[in-house]
Fold this sequence. Notes:
Blueprint: E1 2-4, E2 17-21, E3 24-28, H1 72-80, H2 84-91, H3 96-108, H4 110-120, H5 126-157, H6 163-184, H7 190-214, H8 218-240
Antiparallel strand pairs: 1-3, 2-3
Amino acid sequence: MGVGRPRKSSPGMLPVKNYRYAGWYVNLQPTLKLNTSIAPGGEGGIRTHGAVTRTPDFESGTFDHSATSPSTDDCIEICCRPSEAARIHRMNSLTPEALRTVRQLGYGGLLPFIALTVLSFYSDNSVLQSFAHEGLALYTVAILSFVGAVSWGIALADQALQPDQQRRLFVYSVLPSLVAWLIWFFPEGAMRWVAFASLTFGLYLVDLKHGQQLGWPKEWLTLRLHLSATVGLLLLLAAVGHL
């Protein structure tokens, strides 16, 4: 782009458009080369993401470039922020290797629940029964705390989340450990295990809602259903042992 006298197109060049601005001729030479830099705005230039675009007629008066061009911060946010479709596609998929590992670890984590629940019914040995009750309670607190930590990790990793979505996930992620810790102080009895089971089912319902809204992998949500249902039933079974 040049400022001065009107120019004519040279052989082999693209047509030159001449615009008169404030008594000067502005020559715009179209180009096919993509310019990825962000040009400064204000008087005399328009910020664009690509090549300099053809400007409107300046002859009618002063043209406010800043009103029609995005700010630098907006340009950077648009260029760097992943699209909603890309985020959903990424969050909705698990590789076969990752899915196999998640299932093995998830179902393997049920073994302590099963073993300790069975031991809690061993009434001939009070020491062994007490160990089973306390061990089951501590393991339940640990697992429910881990369930909340998953939401914390997602809030950190998924940069496409809106600030209010991140804040809600951060706040929610610390609640399971706090509530489970309070339940651990309940006196040994059926109410203690009913409270643990209720918290287990409730956390699954909350995670299901979050997963549907934010596009979590369907395989993970299905696994969460299987694990939460099994753990909840085992905890209710432990409560039955006190009736």
